[in-house]
Amino acid sequence: MNNTMTIWTRKFMTNRLLQWKQMATDVLHPGKATVPKTEVPGKLVKMYKTTPHVTFVFGFRTHFGGGKTTGFGVIYDSLDYAKKNEPKHRLSRYGLYQKKNTSRK
Amino acid sequence: MAAPEVLESDLSSAMALLKNLQEQVMAVTAHIQALTKKVQARAYPTEKGLSLLEVKDQLLLMYLMDLSHLILNKASGGSLQRHAAVLRLVEMRTVLEKLRPLDQKLKYQIDKLIKTAVTGSLSENDPLRFKPHPSSMMSKLSSEDEEDEAEKGQSGASGKKSANGAVKKYVPPRLVPVHYDETEAEREKKRLERAKKRALSSSVIRELKEQYSDAPEEIRDARHPHVTRQSQEDQHRINYEESMMVRLSVSKREKGRRKRASVMSSQLHSLTHFSDISALTGGTPHLDEDQNPVKKRKKVPKKGRKKKGFRRRR
């Protein structure tokens, strides 16, 4: 089985309102398990020649039968915009935000 | 010569025409004199009127003046050739003709204005009658507010105007409500029509059509030859998710429907099960691919419909 992972991006759009470039990413991984989220931004960075700390990916769903996973990718114009517009749970996945565990009582 | 005969036969008709003319001229003169008196008494103020009509008035008057000048000329034996008045008449005539489509466009407005002027109020089915009248509501609200202010002594919402004199009750416009009168027979008929439409576009009928029609065979780049409702819904969901960049949650019902659809399509079940064309043949309806049973209308008892502790499952 080949060990290649191919990424296609579809529905690419530059969104000026949120200062990002959004796209739907198709990851092809025949014969392998679903590619973890941490590997995909690296490939996107190479494709779009950005920096890794402004690329975020989320929402990966593998199609029935395996081999293909579809998710969403987002590339911000700058880290400031990323910190402003990105939801906190996604920022914490990349270590840019830490949730305060305050006690309930 | 033929000339005196022609003259004689024409004489009587000419006399009659001249007499007619004289009577008409007298009537017109009287009318015009009455109008002139009224205009001089300023009974017809036209400052706030439609400017198009004013232009038309002036043009017609000028036309009349030129025309009467020419008639005078001709009656006293002059020639009309290359008379300046003729050119003016032609020009005015062209302008009047060009104004005619404008007149057509304004016809509705003018008619409505005339009707309003005559009757003094809007007609029954004038859509302007249905616009809201906040002024009839305003006095009620402001009068309430004033009472509150007097009682509590607070400064209420600013910007409220003082109440008008009489408190007018708000009367909503009277639109004719249509009664819902669909009988069982009509519902049956509608259902039958829908089933017929569905049957006409089923694969059996389509293949028959292709067999017997003379039209060339079309081969289309079909995404999926067997489009079911579930597959269409899935496609819709996928399109939404990708354009909105969100993932939608799937409810239990939706999961069940998907599972049923996948099970049905993965078996060879659908190979021999064609869609229901009983609507065209007049037979009994059977289940279609989506496995939706034919809806029967049951009389639901009104009482005791809601059980205690019943939770609606979505």
UniProtKB/TrEMBL annotation, chain A:
Alphabetized PROSITE patterns for the sequence: RIBOSOMAL_S24E (PS00529)
Transmembrane portions of the chain:
none
Listed A to Z, the keywords are: Ribonucleoprotein, Ribosomal protein
Q: Which Pfam families match?
A: Ribosomal_S24e
Q: Which GO terms describe its cellular component?
A: ribosomal subunit
Alphabetical GO biological process terms: translation
Q: Mind listing the GO molecular function terms for this protein?
A: structural constituent of ribosome
Looking up InterPro entries in the UniProt record yields: eRP_eS24_sf, Ribosomal_eS24, Ribosomal_eS24_CS, Ribosomal_uL23/eL15/eS24_sf
PANTHER family the UniProt entry points to: 40S RIBOSOMAL PROTEIN S24
Provide the family line. Belongs to the eukaryotic ribosomal protein eS24 family.
Protein name per Swiss-Prot or TrEMBL: 40S ribosomal protein S24
Automatic annotation (TrEMBL), chain B:
* InterPro entries registered for this protein in UniProt: Sas10/Utp3/C1D
Where are the stretches annotated Disordered?
Answer: 124-169, 253-314
One GO cellular component term: filopodium
Which family, according to UniProt? Belongs to the SAS10 family.
Protein species of origin: Phyllostomus discolor (pale spear-nosed bat)
Q: What is its main location?
A: other
Compartments it resides in: Cell projection, Filopodium; Nucleus, Nucleolus
Compositionally biased tracts (Polar residues): 263-275
- Origin organism lineage: Eukaryota, Metazoa, Chordata, Craniata, Vertebrata
Tell me a GO biological process for this protein. Answer: maturation of SSU-rRNA from tricistronic rRNA transcript (SSU-rRNA, 5.8S rRNA, LSU-rRNA)
Q: Indicate what this protein is called per its UniProt record.
A: Neuroguidin isoform X2
Q: Basic residues composition bias: which ranges?
A: 294-314
Q: Which gene encodes it?
A: NGDN
